[in-house]
Specification:
six-stranded mixed sheet, Rossmann fold, 43% helix, 10 strands, binds pyridoxal-5'-phosphate, 12 helices, 315 residues
Length: 315
């Protein structure tokens, strides 16, 4: 895969249990519940984290409670419900649930594993170990929403430095969607903390947190490693998503395609140069998405296929 004349390495996270890096965090979080005889786990999510916690709970015989927003689309709901959790549609300010869910732990008699839970972060940091074990990048490009994963990758890199496995931390370049970019806004305005934004719709639904709980830490991760936080348009994301499928054979969801769109813009601005080793983290599979595309391949009778094939291939 290339962006301009820069070669890109892809860290493919789409092959986990439920198709995203969230499974790294759920393995540690739900594993903790298993080890400590906590029979029930919960999460506040309507996407990959919900699916991941529900599946990991199922695999370890834990009960699972998933709190979703009341207006969740039906196909998203079914991708979670296949793993058999108790799903509750919550009306009201869904954004406040992240904090308020911890008050529910007692009445639920269980443990909430949300996006920047220390156990989740501990699991997700292992992607940094794997990357550095295979290659020494100058830059890592990562989509960011709640900031939990950016915190995790940064933590992993700092540990590797501390243990003497890494001389210089790679720069962390974080990417958001233009329609919802609180961390990129804070970076651009040189703010010290990330505030809440009023989001609009984006195809990159997995990274549309308007009030990221670990946003300020993600901002710091980008700054302290010499990286940056940028935002990309939905059109650039769509193009990047197609390019990843057609040129690398990886079908990712839009949130993950922001990394290629982001790398293209970083090459253009000179923040990434052709001589550098750059890794894009492809955070989640595109196979859970409904693909609406009017594909019209030719229809050919079997008997005439031998004659027609050369003509079709050359058209
Ligand atoms: C959750 C998620 C992200 C964002 O991770 P945060 O820890 O919320 O910043 C990016 N890509 C995909 C596919 C995700 O599911």
């Amino acid at each position: 895969m290339r962006a301009g004349d820069c070669d890109l390495w892809l860290k493919d996270e789409t092959g986990h249990l439920t198709g995203s890096f969230k499974d790294r965090g759920s393995a540690v979080g739900v594993g903790w519940a298993l080890q400590n005889d906590i029979a029930r786990v919960g999460t506040v999510s309507h996407g990959n984290m919900a699916r991941s916690v529900a599946a990991t709970a199922a695999a370890t015989g834990r009960d699972c409670v998933v709190l979703v927003p009341a207006d969740i689309p039906a196909d998203r709901l079914s991708h979670i419900s296949v793993f058999g959790p108790t799903i509750i549609r919550v009306e009201g300010a869904y954004g406040d649930l992240y904090e308020r869910s911890f008050d529910l732990e007692q009445s639920m008699d269980g443990l909430f594993i949300n996006s920047d839970d220390p156990l989740r972060v501990a699991g997700q940091k292992t992607v940094a170990y794997e990357i550095v074990d295979q290659i020494t990048p100058e830059a890592i490009v990562l989509p960011v929403s709640s900031g939990g994963n950016a915190s995790a990758v940064w933590k992993g890199l700092r540990e590797l430095e501390w243990m003497g496995h890494l001389d210089d931390s790679p720069r962390l370049h974080l990417v958001q969607a233009e329609a919802c970019s609180p961390i990129a806004d804070a970076y651009g305005s040189e703010a010290t903390a990330v505030g809440r934004v009023q989001p609009s719709e984006t195809i990159a639904y997995s990274i549309a947190n308007p009030d990221p709980p670990s946003g300020t830490r993600a901002l710091e991760a980008a700054r302290q490693t010499g990286g940056s936080v940028i935002a990309v348009s939905d059109q650039a994301v769509r193009d990047a998503q197609d390019r990843l499928a057609r040129q690398a054979g990886v079908r990712v969801e839009p949130a993950s395609a922001t990394t290629l769109a982001g790398a293209e813009s970083l090459v253009e601005s000179g923040e990434i140069t052709a001589d550098e080793t750059v890794v894009l983290v492809l955070t989640g599979t595109g196979f859970t998405e409904q693909i609406v595309d009017d594909v019209q391949p030719p229809t050919v009778a079997l008997d005439v296929l031998p004659q027609r094939l050369p003509e079709i291939l050359s058209s």
